[in-house]
């Protein structure tokens, strides 16, 4: 291709392969820096200036506590940030509690408004879980379905918020190691085998027939089964502690006083 030069040539330089490689490297670095900066600028983080959308997605949970006459229904609504992108994220935006029981109406309204304000403020809101689960009722707690001890109604609300945050990926529950799972399975099998042997007891009825008693293993809502004689584990707050070989052992988390 011919190029017409209108000005006087004062000098020239030959472009070497090293010069081309150096120029290409500088261009690649500049492009990488630009691409690294752009997504960060486009990612929307949760903050109090975000307006509530017309429609929110959420879940409703039921609480049936012996402390209140009627069931309570907890609704947690989430806002979706960066929808349709690789940075899509669900964050809790508001919480509502509905019940026929009016005795707790004041503190329920206050609690839900404060929690919703904290959710909309942004940042790390997972601290609410530990704060709520640490609340104790001076009248005493109760066991919910599955044998899990709840020190108060507020603590069960905290457990529900924790479950919801786990479901949307805000809290990650550390998984048990394969060795720990194998240990728990071994303990459960040994206890069930021992219970089966101890169940073959004859009582010598008047008609000469043998009567057999057997300890029934209760099945909880999450599929776990624990004997009714089990006591509460202070580590996982579940009624799953049994005496095995003279040592208290939890059939749910594997905790043992004997190590």
TrEMBL record:
Transmembrane segments: none
Enzyme nomenclature, EC number: 1.17.4.1
TSCPD domain: residues covered: 52-165
Coiled coil, from the record: none
Record keyword 4Fe-4S present: no
The entry's keywords: DNA synthesis, Nucleotide-binding
Name recorded for this polypeptide: ribonucleoside-diphosphate reductase
Organism: Lysobacter helvus
